[in-house]
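Good morning,

Attaching, inline, the backbone tokens for the sequence recovery test we're adding to the shared suite. The designed sequence is right after.
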């Protein structure tokens, strides 16, 4: 600005020299970079070089992006299967994800994913921590040496009303997110689209009856993953389906023998 510009005379203002994009060519390069960063945020929720969001070094972004995507999906998943008032979110990291210092951005992604199913697309990585605080949700970041045999592991634990729900995720082949544990039950499910999550007593015929109900309703099953710790005891299942399951169909599933809980999760 000009030397006599009123703004620079304020004690609260510190002026620094502008060192970049001094030529037309440089300005074009900067403009392209800004547009690419805006596209990354609008399409994938990836924030780069923001002044009010933890930054990830440019050279680490290729590694960070799939983890950010995973953290958002885990947050959205756990928010939709939790029953009760949210009071505390514990975000725990283990393995290589800790080595590069990218996890603060992942925590923001997890909070954003947690709140979006409730509040919609107005939630983003910039305002998510403030919104969580306003809603009385305490966020705790934790580090662990228990990666359950995975190279990296992100574990979310959501607490409230004397209840706790947990979900863990990792990356397969460096960029393919997977949910690998829910409430202590091992499983491997792709967090994508519509997911029918349910718990049941491990008895013959349970899955077949659910498949029949979905088939009669015209809902196609794209994938099925099951998890249990002991034969005959409680088990979990995640079905990826190609379309939403109507509530009346969900009620039929909930009414089946041996079904203890069923919820449609929307990660589309």
């Amino acid at each position: 600005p000009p030397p006599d510009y009123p703004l620079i005379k304020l004690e609260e203002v510190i002026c620094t020299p502008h060192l970049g994009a001094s030529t037309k060519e440089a300005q074009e390069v900067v403009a392209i970079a800004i547009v690419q960063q805006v596209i990354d945020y609008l399409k994938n929720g990836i924030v780069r070089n923001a002044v009010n969001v933890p930054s990830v070094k440019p050279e680490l972004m290729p590694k960070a992006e799939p983890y950010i995507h995973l953290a958002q999906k885990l947050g959205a998943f756990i928010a939709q299967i939790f029953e009760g008032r949210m009071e505390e979110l514990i975000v725990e990291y283990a393995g290589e994800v800790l080595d590069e210092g990218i996890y603060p951005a992942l925590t923001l992604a997890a909070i954003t994913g947690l709140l979006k199913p409730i509040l919609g697309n107005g939630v983003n990585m910039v305002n998510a921590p403030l919104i969580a605080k306003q809603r009385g949700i305490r966020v705790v970041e934790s580090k662990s040496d228990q990666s359950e045999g995975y190279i990296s592991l992100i574990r979310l634990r959501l607490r409230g009303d004397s209840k706790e729900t947990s979900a863990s995720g990792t990356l397969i082949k460096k960029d393919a997110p997977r949910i690998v544990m829910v409430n202590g039950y091992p499983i491997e499910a792709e967090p994508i689209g519509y997911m029918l999550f349910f718990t049941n007593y491990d008895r013959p015929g349970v899955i077949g009856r659910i498949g029949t109900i979905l088939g009669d309703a015209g809902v196609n099953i794209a994938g099925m993953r099951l998890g249990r710790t002991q034969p005959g005891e409680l088990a979990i299942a995640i079905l990826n389906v190609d379309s939403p399951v109507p509530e009346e169909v969900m009620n039929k599933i909930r009414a089946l023998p041996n079904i203890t809980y069923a919820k449609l999760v929307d990660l589309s």
